[in-house]
Specification:
Shape: elongated
Helix content: 10-25%
Radius of gyration: 21 Å
Number of helices: 3
Oligomer: single chain
Largest sheet: 7 strands, antiparallel
Length: about 300
């Protein structure tokens, strides 16, 4: 999976889980399932609300080769939101597949890895993109900056505000009640290694993503199939269904699934279908379902959509 797509795929979500038609409340197995689903949704909400999560992103700039001043003053080429940092924070020089970030005199920032595997590193000048496999943030007070290299060579700079009002006031996502009718037995049919399919994003750009295989299942008596992308050995599904016209996010939803082991029984749980980051933030670029993943039936499970407030 490309880095651009992986950035969107890593977002999960949440709110609550209660008994409903399709869930036999009171049995040990179903009680355990509801508890697990509730934990998954709670953990997913926290992922969305975490510091530097999607609700904290307040700006996004795409940079080609050149020199850019960055800060909150209007005379910068990269203008940060008012109050989020100094008037003139520093200079970004883009070229050779990386961004050299040099801070203005008297300014310092600290590098923090998104996976928190390294000790924070203070700097005044640094190469921000050099083929790293994990993403890092440059932080100063409320402000965090992330530099991402796109496949077309552009550098995307995202700014996050730790005190973003949306992060503080977010009440949680809206979900269908759990329904085991949408936790369905499925069959996985792998494809030849290296097979790719075109995936468009909300900006109309196309990337070719490695497909792992096809998932076959039956929902509400209808046989359906979905192409699943390879996600470091597991499966990542982008799909749209009949509910997209009414109660769920119109462009489509995501579903992350552990790849089945040979000979193992396997289910796909649409109660864990979730919205992409674009449902919450105008500052991200999300992939769209390929045409073959537009399901003709309704999948009334997983996350609903209440509208983006940004």
């Amino acid at each position: 999976m490309t880095a651009r797509l992986a950035l969107c795929a890593c977002s999960l979500v949440a709110v609550f889980a209660t008994a409903s038609p399709g869930v036999v409340a009171g049995t040990a197995a179903d009680t355990a399932y509801l508890d697990e689903l509730r934990t998954w949704r709670d953990r997913a909400t926290e992922s969305l609300k975490r510091e530097r999560g999607w609700l904290s992103i307040v700006s996004r700039d795409e940079l080609t080769a050149g020199t850019y001043r960055i800060g909150t003053a209007a005379d910068n080429e990269v203008v940060l939101p008012k109050g989020l940092g100094p008037a003139h924070l520093g200079t970004i020089v883009v070229g050779g597949g990386k961004a050299r970030f040099t801070l203005a005199p008297g300014q310092k920032m600290t590098m923090v890895a998104s996976d928190k595997t390294t000790t924070p590193d203070e700097f005044t000048a640094r190469d921000m993109v050099a083929g790293a496999t994990r993403l890092e943030w440059a932080t100063q007070g409320r402000l965090s900056l992330q530099f991402v290299k796109r496949e077309d060579g552009k550098i995307v700079v995202r700014a996050a505000d730790r005190d973003s009002p949306r992060r503080k006031t977010f009440a949680g996502r809206s979900w269908y009640e759990p329904d085991t009718a949408y936790k369905v037995p499925a069959k996985f049919i792998p494809v030849a290694n290296g097979t790719t399919i075109p995936i468009a994003n909300v900006r109309g750009e196309i990337s070719y993503e490695k497909v792992a295989g096809t998932v076959e299942f039956t929902v509400n008596g209808k046989k359906m199939t979905l192409d699943a992308l390879d996600d470091d050995g597991d499966l990542f599904i982008i799909f749209r269904d009949g509910t997209s016209e009414a109660t769920t996010y119109p462009p489509g939803r995501f579903l992350a699934v552990a790849k089945p082991k040979d000979g193992a029984s396997w289910v796909v749980d649409f109660n864990k279908a979730y919205n992409p980051p674009c449902a919450f933030s105008a500052f991200t670029t999300c992939p769209l379902p390929p045409p073959q993943n537009w399901l003709k039936g309704d999948v009334a499970a997983g996350e609903k959509y209440a509208g983006r407030k940004s």
